[in-house]
Write a structure and sequence with these properties.
The chain is of the alpha/beta class. It is built from 13 helices and 10 strands. It has one domain: Aldolase class I (TIM Barrel). Helix 11 links the parallel strand 9 and strand 10.
Length: about 260
């Protein structure tokens, strides 16, 4: 596990007692929310589904779009053909917040993924209360029992889990936990290197009834086309869109790539 990931998870754990103190409040707020748009269904389409990410910065890329307005950008992405939006809610390393998620939920109709470091059920409840349709679960950050418990929690709260894996062992763990959406991350969280070739091999091996999402390295239309040829149903695009001079045009081009299937 990378030192960066260790530090992030340490910070997340430090915030859990405060979250636990708000359990009743969060569960009540989540219970009042109407059913969110179906994240998995949104990713099943004839063309590659683009999950467009609202991203200000990251440990690997540094500052990308520090002044990004989540509502303006979310509306632009939705209008340009995004199947769903990924909203970063981790603040220290990614510059995100739950307030971003709530603001975007009020402004767009497409499903929202809460992208954060989810290690406790109450973070799932918190995501549901903010309007998310899905949460990201990272295999490398969780034990198998923790992963299974969090998948079950997403189902109980009427949501989906995008389970992120980087190698065969992690893909096997995701499938064993009941994954129906697997994100194959070409970036190694240990050293931040990207290996698209290895990622494509993993995508090709995923069962046909699992939604395959290609993550990281989706810099341009050519990369999305390569993901589609490998059998990806969807791609998650963050840095390329956040840094683009015309993110709407780039997204529209990416969303026009036909899906090949597996």
């Amino acid at each position: 596990m990378s030192s960066t990931l260790d530090r992030i998870l340490t910070g997340i754990r430090a915030g859990l007692p405060a979250l636990a103190a708000r359990r009743e409040e969060l569960e009540a707020a989540a219970g009042r929310r109407p059913a969110p748009p179906d994240f998995r269904e949104a990713l099943r389409r004839p063309k590659v589904a683009v999950i467009a990410e609202l991203k200000r910065k990251s440990p690997s890329a540094g500052l990308i779009a520090p002044r990004l307005d989540p509502v303006e950008r979310g509306q632009r992405y939705a209008g340009a053909g995004a199947a769903a939006l990924s909203v970063l809610t981790e603040e220290a390393h990614f510059g995100g917040s739950l307030a971003d998620l709530e603001a975007v939920r009020s402004a767009v109709a497409v499903p929202l993924l809460r992208k954060d470091f989810i290690i406790h059920e109450l973070q799932v409840v918190e995501a549901r209360a903010a309007g998310a349709s899905a949460v990201l679960l990272i295999v490398r950050a969780l034990t198998p029992p923790e992963l299974r418990a969090l998948v079950d929690a997403t189902h109980r709260w009427g949501m989906h889990a995008l389970i992120e894996a980087h190698d065969r062992r992690e893909v096997a763990a995701a499938l064993a936990a009941g994954a129906t959406i697997v994100g194959v991350n070409s970036r190694d969280l240990g050293d931040f290197s990207i290996n698209l070739g290895a990622a494509w091999k993993l995508v090709r091996e995923l069962p046909g009834d699992v939604v395959a999402v290609a993550e990281s390295g989706m810099r341009d239309v050519a990369a999305v086309r390569a993901a589609a040829e490998a059998g990806a149903d969807a791609v998650l695009v963050g840095t390329a869109l956040s840094a683009a001079d015309d993110p709407g045009a780039l997204l529209t081009s990416m969303a026009e790539i036909p899906r090949h299937g597996r």
